[in-house]
Amino acid sequence: MGNDHVTPDLFALRTAADDVPIDDVIRLLGTFHARNAIVYLSDHSTVTVDELADVLAAAAASNDETIATPSDRDRIRIRLYHAILPRLADLEFITFDSETNTVTETSIPDAVTAALRIDD
User: Fold this and answer.
1) HEC per residue, 40-96
2) Which residues have CB under 8 Å from 42's CB, separation 6+?
3) Please, are residues 38 and 3 in contact by the beta-carbon 8 Å criterion?
4) Domains in the chain, start-ordered, CATH in brackets?
5) 3-state secondary structure at position 105
6) What is the distance between the alpha carbons of residues 96 and 64, in angstroms, rounded to a whole number?
7) Domain of life here (predicted)?
């Protein structure tokens, strides 16, 4: 994913202050898995929750220099389903279909991708 160790540029988020609740975005970007989910979704417009959990488990294992286990993946999948994806949906960055477990990136603001230093 290339941006695993990115520290968000909070100054870049100032431009999004009128478009999104900036405190909610900053709180969301404070979590490793949420940042990496946004990075991955910026390159993959539609994914399953399982695919996203696999990617995030691999990113966390790489960051920690460990090997991801099935329990790591399951823990991340639960966190995605109950915390990260609902927050992203509330901010209207994604749509989440809980019946098909499909996540579709809809409109991640340019200020957020700039803050995460995501190259187009």
Assistant:
1) HHHHCCEEEHHHHHHHHHHHHHHHHCCCCCHHHHHHHHHHHHHHHHHHHHHCCCEEE
2) 105, 108, 113, 118
3) no
4) 10-115 (1.10.10.10)
5) strand
6) 29
7) Archaea
Residue 19 confidence (pLDDT): 65
| CA distances, 85 to each of 15, 88, 102 (Å) | 23, 5, 11
Cα–Cα distance measured from residue 49 to residue 43, given in angstroms and rounded to the nearest whole number: 15
Q: Do residues 16 and 92 touch, judged by C-beta distance below 8 A?
A: no
Q: What is the DSSP letter of 100?
A: T
- CA–CA dist 50, 56 (Å, integer): 10
Per-residue tokens: 30: 């404070």
